[in-house]
Prior knowledge:
Elements: E1 7-25, E2 31-51, E3 55-60, H1 72-83, E4 89-95, H2 106-121, H3 128-138, H4 142-147, E5 150-155, E6 159-162, E7 170-174, H5 182-195, H6 203-212, H7 215-220, E8 223-224, H8 227-233, H9 236-244, E9 251-254, E10 261-265, H10 268-279, E11 287-291
Parallel strand pairs: 1-8, 3-4
Antiparallel strand pairs: 1-2, 2-4, 2-5, 5-6, 7-10, 7-11, 9-10
Amino acid sequence: MKPILQTHTAYAYAKINLSLDILGTLPNGYHEVRMIMQSLQLHDTITLNINNTPGITMTCSDTALPVDEHNLAYRAAVLFCTTYGITDGISLHLEKKIPVAAGLAGGSSDAAAVLRGLNEMYGSPATAGDLAALGVKLGADVPYCLMLGTALSEGIGERLTALPSAPDCHCLLVKPAAGASTKQIYTDYDALVQTTDIKHPDTDALLSALSAGDYNALVSGLCNVLEPVTMQLVPDIAVIKNALQPLGADGVLMSGSGPTVFALFSDLDTAKRAEAHFLATEYAPGTFLTNLYKPE
Length: 296
Ligand code: ATP
């Protein structure tokens, strides 16, 4: 297959979960989820270049990340090239901005951006459906990261429905330094759900809020069943949430399996004051003020 572009820059957008519900466990052990996803303007940048030395080579601004088959961006390039019989050399450089292991789908989004980018460089051999089918092999969130915007994600995350865009607002991310393993969080959830009444989101009410463009109903319905679980492992989550509320946040929630907490603000000055507050704390390295991302 011949490329139509020798070089390409692809953008990988972070996501937050406006809601995250677990409906049960599937026979294969996966959790069946129902969640409302929202992409953010905060993004990684991936530069793709075709060269004459066969194979995939990778560099990354974050030297703590692997640059081989352990990196989802690298794996996405290998998968696309194998699927479409591409034998050119491909180099990719990942400029990392999305916090790692944060509940913001950074790795999945990088994988999606590589699939999208290579597809453009080779004249779109894959349809959107083909790309999603490749994406789900790399991770359950990859099909959403290909789609972007506001979406309902069901099944293991592969069943997607586009939703009306969330009302414009500002999003402050605060990630504590301590992390927690996603596997551990799901295991702890399974144990906790046996003994505790966990608050579930009213997903249908949130869907109605999105259809009506009702910002107040949206922010008051934010809910993530994993939040109490990760909070037990990372107490900083509660510290951050408690600090955000008096700073004027309209709604505050942990994203994905955490530990990043996000706060939504309709007013930019209030959001900037909250950002300044966190930039003066130990949480400064994990503090980012961004906006919702709405693809055209
Ligand atoms: P999710 O929200 O989908 O659970 P996450 O934001 O919690 O994702 P990632 O940032 O994707 O987590 O990283 C999880 C792990 O994946 C990290 O420990 C990292 O070593 C590995 N990883 C592989 N490729 C990447 C990548 N391109 N960017 C970040 N992490 C990657």
